[in-house]
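Internal tracking record. Fields below are filled automatically when a chain is submitted to the structure queue. Please do not edit lines marked as system-generated. If the sequence contains nonstandard residues, flag them in the REMARKS field before resubmitting.
Queue: standard
Priority: normal
Entity type: single polypeptide chain
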Amino acid sequence: MGLSSAMYTGISGLSAHGNKLSVISNNIANVSTMGFKSSTMNFEDLVSNHITTSAGLAQMGCGTSISSLYSNFAQGSFAESDDNTDMAIEGDGFFVVRVPNSTQNYYTRAGNFRLNDNGDLVDTNGYVVQGWAVDNSVENGNASASEVRIIGSITDIKLENYQCEPSATSLMKMITQLDSDEVSYATDEDNPYFSLASLWDGTETTPLASETYAYSQTMTTYDANGSAHTVTVYFDKVDTSNTGGRQVWEYVVTCVPDDDGRVINGVDISETSAAGMLMMGTLSFDATGKVSSMSAYTLGDSSALTSDNTKDLSNWTLADFSNDGYVLCTANYLGESNASTTGSENATNIRIDFGLTNKAPTGGASNSGWSSIAYSNASLVGNNISNINRLPSFANIDIDATATTSYSTSSSTLTMSQNGYSSGYLTSVSVDRDGVLTGTYSNGEEIDLYVIALATFNSDWALERAGGNLYSETKSSGAAITNTPGSGSSGTISGNYLETSNVDLSEEFVDLISTEKGFQANSKVITTADTLLSTVISMVR
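SYSTEM-GENERATED OUTPUT FOLLOWS
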């Protein structure tokens, strides 16, 4: 009984150590497999037999068996990659991939993805990476995954259109420093605040002579078809008096007269002296040179408007505000007829940003957004140069810390940008740490396309290995909990990196030696028991 038991005990040891050797060999074989997680096997003793001894009842062991086989989900090291679609997870979570034309999801830590000929972002098995589409109807800028607006539920990441459609300019930002030591170059005794507007003549080859303004800046804007148009803003200081140290600059926002396609109440603006003049107004500064107020006027749609009076200041009314508090002017670069300066489907409303916004764009006098409508058209401001309070101001002004200034230094442009662009084609993609997949286009635009989905589980150790660097969920693991990277318990994404295998060769070699010795020792038990049994059998002879 004892010798047979010893032999079977040795066999259990051989079996257990043989299985552990298989685990170790699998770990070592996958030392270079991206995203591979090593496994660890543990043993436990079998139920012992009870035997009687002179000291009383005792137990004698019957061998060993496998108690557990766990995956080690410790973070693997990162290897840099030249492919922009390669990514690694820093922290918890798995990429979600779906079998094409199926509802079957798998989960992986291997982020070596590529775009196939259908535009799908796929893993090495051809399974499509999952994520959320981004709503590009809103301006996300360089927002994180928690700030961009995602659309609907998780879907295949698929680049269906490699072309970037053009977008018309809807915001012009121009932050300038205007020299407080400048003098006034444009003069109009009757309307000193609008001297530049009075001198503008869109029917001339040079609508505004260079000696009539102190500073100008030009930027390129785009219409809805992606065509480029030049917009120039002219500035000139107003010669004011008795204003308590404050100063006023007038400005006009203009486009090339031939590009002006506005038709207001049947009047073709391009054929008038107002051609190309989109907005006029003033910027007021306090004694320290900081901007304190702003006025803005655009050409209204009065029934009295004719081709002969488009320059009459009585036809220039207080500008409307956008929902986010910027003054609006309207450009119709396409040459399509529109009913009014506030725009139609063919016209583009452009927000003008000098660093000031209105926190109450529908508040103020008569819900106009202005503090007063007593001077609702430019002619009513008149020549009262000794009281700049006659100039209208925002109902609730908000001045940015980097707004336009007027210090005793030369005039310059500090910041200039606009949000329109021409058409372009996709040149590359990239992924940021928040999992936002961004496309870069030949026109220089970067557009957020998708947000990568990450899945976490109640128990990673209960996931089932499915081969191909994939895992599938089980009842014990719980259902996948999907989040954007960096939210919930999900880790973040490192673009242009791959997570390598977390196999530690030094540990594996130590385990290999230990397992080999254990196997040899158990085999020795069997050979010893066999020798003893042979001795017993030989006693019969």
